[in-house]
């Protein structure tokens, strides 16, 4: 694919109308970073599921026809990025999509959204975990948090105290599934949060940022969106992760300053001008 055209990414995730997560985060962030975002909606929600009530419409049955039209148009993508997937069938559809639309220069980013704080999400059955391990094997970059890294590798989870050697082994187990590069996020190190970056062909590094504010929904989507856009644009993965980490930190800080309710995620809109200036 020509290096002179605008980069284009197929972004697979749900669409939540309120709450700043998934596609409502990815579309503006990729656009600000000069990447065309082409949504593949896996479901439609009125708001994310952290609120007490929500409308939900599963889009699984419609995805094959949706993607068939893209095939008829002969579309090609510089990147294919997958986020939250709600069933074994959705994972299978994404596997098929990657096989159909991945060209020799297409970069695949898999964010295996499976759990947090040491626990799988209630929707994640063992067949879904197996399916996600297969999907991870197709990724040029995979971005599990520490919980998800442990689920993928059948390792016991603990919140703190991970040594570099243990993180090396954890990342290597994920790469043995087929993934080329691994970013393990959300590693607690006292007053810091760390991301472990194992990029193919480079020595692993730890990227740390100081904790600020409270944990908020959607921060993983913000992080994955910045990483994906930067990686597809050709940035080294370590730089992409550092950009994403600092942006998420500053978005959390700004959200606290503006007293944004936690369930409303982070007000990344206030800092979008930073993303437009990235070179």
TrEMBL record:
Coiled-coil region(s): none
Protein keywords: ATP-binding, Kinase, Nucleotide-binding, Thiamine biosynthesis, Transferase
InterPro entries: PM/HMP-P_kinase-1, PyrdxlKinase, Ribokinase-like
Keyword Cell wall biogenesis/degradation carried by entry: no
Alphabetized Pfam families for the sequence: Phos_pyr_kin (PF08543)
BP term (GO), one: pyridoxal 5'-phosphate salvage
This enzyme's EC code(s): 2.7.1.35
GO MF assignments: ATP binding; hydroxymethylpyrimidine kinase activity; phosphomethylpyrimidine kinase activity; pyridoxal kinase activity
Protein name: pyridoxal kinase
Source organism: Enterocloster lavalensis
Source taxonomy: Bacteria, Bacillati, Bacillota, Clostridia, Lachnospirales
């Amino acid at each position: 694919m020509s290096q002179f055209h605008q980069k284009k990414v197929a972004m697979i995730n749900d669409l939540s109308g309120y709450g700043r997560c998934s596609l409502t985060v990815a579309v503006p962030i990729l656009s600000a970073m000069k990447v065309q975002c082409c949504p593949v909606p896996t479901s439609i929600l009125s708001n994310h599921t952290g609120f007490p009530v929500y409308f939900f419409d599963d889009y699984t049955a419609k995805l094959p026809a949706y993607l068939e039209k893209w095939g008829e148009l002969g579309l090609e993508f510089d990147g294919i990025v997958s986020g939250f997937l709600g069933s074994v069938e959705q994972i299978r559809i994404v596997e098929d999509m990657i096989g159909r639309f991945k060209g020799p220069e297409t970069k695949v980013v898999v964010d295996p959204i499976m759990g947090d704080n040491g626990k799988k999400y209630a929707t994640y059955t063992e067949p879904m975990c197996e399916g996600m391990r297969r999907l991870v094997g197709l990724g040029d970059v995979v971005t599990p948090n520490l919980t998800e890294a442990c689920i993928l590798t059948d390792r016991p989870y603990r919140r703190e105290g991970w040594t570099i050697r243990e993180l090396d082994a954890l990342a290597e187990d994920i790469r043995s599934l087929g993934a080329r590069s691994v970013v393990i996020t959300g590693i607690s190190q006292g007053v810091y949060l760390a991301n472990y970056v194992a990029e193919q062909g480079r020595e692993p590094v730890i990227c740390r940022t100081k904790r600020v504010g409270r944990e908020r929904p959607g921060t993983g989507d913000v992080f994955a969106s910045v990483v994906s856009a930067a990686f597809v644009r050709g940035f080294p993965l370590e730089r992409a992760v550092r950009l994403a980490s600092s942006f998420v930190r500053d978005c959390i800080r700004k959200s606290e300053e503006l007293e944004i309710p936690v369930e409303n995620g982070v007000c990344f809109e206030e800092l979008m001008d930073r993303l437009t200036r990235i070179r």
